[in-house]
Design a protein that fits this description.
By secondary structure, the protein is α/β, with parallel strands linked by helices. The chain contains 8 helices and 7 strands. It has one domain: NAD(P)-binding Rossmann-like Domain (Rossmann fold), CATH 3.40.50. Helix 3 runs parallel beside helix 4 and helix 4 packs parallel to helix 5.
C-alpha cells in the first residue's frame, strides 16, 4: 500500500483506532476523509487536523450507505483507499438475551454488513483508479474468542474470512486487499482506554505504520502484541490461551 498520495476514507475515524490511523495518514500528506455517526467526534478530529475532511454515515442503514457513496465519490473523485474500521462491541449474556436480540443484530449490522455493503458500493469506483486499496479491520478476537462478547468476536472472524475471499476475487485487479488485526488497544471500546493491560493507542499506530512501510505490504498487519492470539492455533496454544483468557473474567451480571 502506498503511504502517500492517496485519498483515503476511514469509517469510525472520529475516535480510537480510526482516528489514530486518520491522523497518521494525514501527517503523511494524504487526503483523509473520516466518516461516522457522531458529528461531535468527527468535528473534534477535523478541527485538530486542518485539511482533514469528514462526512456523516450511518453504517447500519443500506440506503444511507448508497447515498454516502454517491456523495463521497462526487466530492472526492480521486478516492482510492477504503479502511473499514467502524465497529461496536457489547457484552452479552446469552442466557438472558433481549427478546429481539437488539445488541446482537446491531453488532452484526455495523461490524459485518456495514463493511460488506460499503465495499460493494465502492468497488466500481475503486476499479477506475490507477491503484487502490481496501483495508478491513478485524481483531485478535477473530482468532481467540472472548466469551463475554460472542457476537463481536463472531463478526470479526467473519470479516477475516470475507477479506480472504475478497483478496482472492480481486487478485487480478488494481485493488490491494489488506487486513489489520489489532490486539487489545487502549480505546473507548468496552472501557479499554483506562485499562493498563491494553496496548497504548499511539504505540499501536506507530507499529502499524512501520509495518505498512514494508514492500510488498503484508496481507495481514499484525503488531507483536496480537501474534499470540492470531497464531494460537498454529502454535498449538489455542486451548491454553482460550482457557486462561476467558477464565480470568467474571461472568456477566
Amino acid at each position: 500500500m502506498n503511504l502517500s498520495g492517496n485519498t483515503i476514507l476511514i469509517t469510525g475515524g472520529g475516535s480510537g483506532i480510526g482516528r489514530g490511523l486518520a491522523e497518521a495518514f494525514h501527517a503523511l500528506g494524504n487526503q483523509v476523509i473520516i466518516a461516522g455517526r457522531r458529528q461531535g467526534a468527527l468535528d473534534e478530529t477535523t478541527a485538530a487536523n486542518p485539511g482533514m475532511k469528514s462526512l456523516t454515515l450511518d453504517i447500519e442503514r443500506p440506503e444511507a450507505i448508497r447515498a454516502f457513496v454517491t456523495q463521497i465519490t462526487g466530492e472526492f473523485p480521486s478516492l482510492n483507499a477504503l479502511i473499514n474500521n467502524a465497529g461496536i462491541m457489547r457484552a452479552e449474556k446469552l442466557l438472558a438475551q433481549q427478546p429481539d436480540l437488539a445488541d446482537a443484530e446491531a453488532i452484526v449490522t455495523t461490524n459485518l454488513l456495514g463493511p460488506i455493503r460499503l465495499t460493494a458500493a465502492l468497488l466500481p469506483h475503486l476499479q477506475k483508479q490507477p491503484h487502490a486499496a481496501i483495508m478491513n479491520v478485524s481483531s485478535g478476537l477473530a482468532f481467540m474468542p472472548l466469551h463475554i462478547t460472542p457476537t463481536y468476536c463472531a463478526t470479526k472472524a467473519a470479516i477475516h474470512s470475507y477479506t480472504l475471499s475478497l483478496r482472492y476475487q480481486l487478485r487480478a485487479t488494481n485493488i490491494e486487499v489488506l487486513e489489520l488485526i489489532p490486539p487489545y488497544v487502549a480505546t473507548d471500546l468496552m472501557g479499554g482506554a483506562s485499562d493498563a493491560r491494553a496496548m497504548p493507542l499511539d504505540r499501536f499506530i506507530a507499529e502499524v505504520m512501520e509495518i505498512l512501510k514494508q514492500q510488498p505490504t503484508p496481507a495481514e498487519i499484525c503488531v507483536e502484541n496480537v501474534k499470540p492470539l492470531r497464531f494460537a492455533a498454529e502454535t498449538g496454544k489455542f486451548d491454553a490461551i482460550f482457557s486462561g483468557m476467558n477464565s480470568s473474567l467474571a461472568d456477566i451480571h
